Amino acid sequence: MEDEQRLAHILVVDDMPANVELLLGMLDMAGFENVSSTMDPFEGLAIAERNVPDLVLLDYRMPGLDGPGFIGRLKAILGSQTPPVLMVTAQNDEASRRRALDAGARDYVTKPYAFWELEARSRNLLELHLLNKAQRRQTEVLERLVRERTAELERTRAEIITRLCSAGEFRDEDTGQHVTRIGRMSGVMAELAGLPPVLCAKIAAAAPLHDIGKIGIPDRVLLKPGRLDENEWVIMKTHARIGEQLLAGSGLALLDLASEIAGTHHEKWDGSGYPLGLAGGDIPLSGRIVAICDVFDALLSARPYKQPWKVEDVLAHLDQIAGSHLDPALTRLFIDNIDRMLAIRAELMD
């Protein structure tokens, strides 16, 4: 006998002392070393809860709780850990057999039984059960490995985003915590818009890269301490395409989303934006969300060429450009939840 079967926990439940003694003797002769027994079905349930058995040898007729009732309670206690039950009984009528099997008994042996038959049926049930346990353990190991690998990939993704954002900040230090706030606000907006939680998290993670294309803008334009002239503005507007191209083609869903945001967050609802002049619903939702958050946070922030606006002035401006620059429905949603956005700014001030 293999060690796993020899050491498997077998529970005997029968209200007749002679039957218990007979079964214990037969199991001992068969080489099973880990056997528990009781003549009280309720004590049997308590034993099973403390030390989950691998097989239960169960009588049918017992005072207080019969075999099928015992199985029902055992399943309620142990759930997916419920072991196979071998009904050992003198009840040989069809109704009893059917009730026991319907309740969940895996096999049914009637008294008097042959020793070899009881041993063989017990071994067969144990073999299947132990194989299932091994499979569950293997599944748990694989699931843990998948979770660990997923967490590692998530850490890698976060590190890539952080380092790319750092690259942008080296070129444009005046933006401060702006990109972090845009990520947080965009995630909240995605949630308010009813997007799935996974997509909300992705938008929150990708949005900080919306202006990464500015690393391709010459210092004389990017760092100019005043308003840009017409030619400089043409150069500045190329940052949207630069960012889109920089982040595209990785095969990573998150960076593909970041590429979409970088390339479309300066499009306008009426089609007058850049770089493609997209309008209305042709602008990806991610770009429309980030556009609102970007305008809001930029207007509230100090820049070399302007002083920060007052909150009430920013809200009035958002309301004014809804339907021309910004998605009107999303803008209303943003304004209706302004307290959450202001809380993010307060938490992540420059």
How does the SSE layout of this entry go?
Elements: H1 3-6, E1 9-13, H2 17-29, E2 34-38, H3 41-50, E3 55-58, H4 67-78, E4 85-89, H5 94-103, E5 107-110, H6 115-171, H7 178-192, H8 197-206, H9 219-222, H10 230-237, H11 239-247, H12 253-264, H13 285-300, H14 311-321, H15 328-336, H16 338-347
Parallel strand pairs: 1-2, 1-3, 3-4, 4-5
Helix pairs in contact: 3-4, 4-5, 7-8, 7-13, 7-16, 8-12, 11-12, 12-13, 13-14, 14-15
Our count of helices gives: 16
Global mean pLDDT: 92
Structural class: alpha/beta
Q: What is the rounded distance between the termini?
A: 71 Å
Task: List key phrases describing it.
elongated; alpha/beta; five-stranded parallel β-sheet; Hypothetical protein af1432; single chain; 16 helices; Rossmann fold; 60% helix; 350 residues
Task: Write a brief caption for the model.
With 350 residues, the protein is an alpha/beta fold.
Please, could you describe this protein's structure?
By secondary structure, the chain is of the alpha/beta class. It has 2 domains: 3-141, 3-Layer(aba) Sandwich (Rossmann fold); 172-347, Hypothetical protein af1432 (Orthogonal Bundle), CATH 1.10.3210. It is built from 16 helices and 5 strands. It has helices at residues 3-6, 17-29, 41-50, 67-78, 94-103, 115-171, 178-192, 197-206, 219-222, 230-237, 239-247, 253-264, 285-300, 311-321, 328-336, 338-347; strands at residues 9-13, 34-38, 55-58, 85-89, 107-110. It has a 5-stranded parallel beta sheet, sandwiched between helices. Helix 8 packs across helix 12, helix 13 runs antiparallel to helix 14 and helix 14 runs antiparallel to helix 15 (328-336). The longest helix is centred in the middle third of the chain and has 57 residues, at 115-171. The mean pLDDT is 92.
